[in-house]
Design brief:
291 residues, alpha+beta, Sortase, Chain: A, 2 domains, 8-stranded mixed barrel, 3-stranded antiparallel sheet, 3 helices, 11 strands, rod-shaped, disordered N terminus
């Protein structure tokens, strides 16, 4: 019934539905357009319900539409091929705008050179290495044990062993006699005698020798004639010769024992009675070993 009206009306509604479906299905924004306005005949036509709408090929494929009858109308299963009307809708095709990346030219920044203030340091003085000297250990001076004279004999007339020590010569007086150990009178009768305990010939200390001035050989009779610089020559039993030189002469008391004191130098002392033939004094001659 009303095939032509239904067909016209159906085409109008189907066109609007197709347009809406195309918009919704394709996701493309179309220019805003209202649905087709039906004429007076269309307004009087019963409303139709679109039961099913098949998707429309956007490239223009045919669309089959099934129109359901209005309520109270007999069902007329009429199938009509609806040819979509080509409208003047402007379709907006999405354009993918690809903006080429902007390539910035590399910028070369010249390095900034900051001139630093230059400080000129004074030249370094290199000190020579310090040499640590080992501590100086000074050896103590050698301890010299000087001879220790024996005291005068308690009995000067008693005999004693005869011990030869060598020879004694006084060239300025013309004397050259054997030398013995001991100062007792029997020893003096043999020749000049060496005081026991005093320095031996050439030994450090004071070598003391006595003799007669008037009895026996009177070896020291002219002892007072010796002068400074005169020599006395001692030759020991081993043949060693020691020369002493006269320094001075003095007269002392008969018991002056200082004349036998020992000295650090190598010296000699000659003594005898004074004046000759008497024992009230002593004549003493001091000598030093020649260098």
């Amino acid at each position: 019934m009303f095939p032509s009206r239904l067909s016209k009306s159906g085409r109008g509604l189907a066109g609007a539905a197709v347009a809406f479906t195309v918009l919704c299905t394709s996701g493309v924004l179309l220019a805003e357009r209202g649905p087709a306005q039906p004429g007076p005949a269309a307004a009087a036509a019963p409303a139709t319900t679109i039961a099913d709408t098949e998707p429309v090929d956007p490239l223009g494929a045919d669309l089959k539409t099934t129109v359901a009858p209005a309520p109270g109308q007999p069902t007329a299963p009429t199938a009509s091929a609806v040819t979509p009307t080509t409208g003047t809708m402007a379709s907006v095709t999405p354009t993918a705008t690809s903006t080429p990346p902007t390539t910035l030219a590399p910028t070369t920044v010249a390095p900034t050179t900051m001139a630093l203030p230059t400080t000129t340091l004074p030249p370094t003085t290199t000190l020579p290495p310090t040499t640590t000297l080992p501590p100086t250990t000074m050896a103590p001076p050698p301890t010299t044990t000087l001879p220790r004279p024996l005291p005068p004999p308690a009995d000067p007339d008693a005999s004693e062993p005869v011990v030869p020590l060598g020879r004694l010569a006084l060239p300025s007086l013309g004397i050259d006699r054997p030398l013995y150990e001991g100062i007792r009178l029997p020893t003096f009768d043999l020749g000049p005698g060496h005081w026991p305990g005093t320095a031996l010939p050439g030994q450090q200390g004071n070598m003391v020798v006595g003799g007669h001035r008037t009895s026996a050989n009177a070896d020291f009779r002219d002892l007072d004639q010796l002068a400074a610089g005169d020599q006395m020559i001692i030759t020991d039993t081993n043949g060693n010769t020691f020369i002493y030189v006269v320094d001075s002469t003095e007269i002392t008391g008969p018991f002056s024992l200082r004349v036998i004191n020992q000295t650090a130098a190598t010296t000699a002392t000659l003594f005898a009675c004074h004046p000759p033939g008497q024992v009230i004094e002593r004549i003493v001659v001091h000598l030093t070993l020649a260098a």
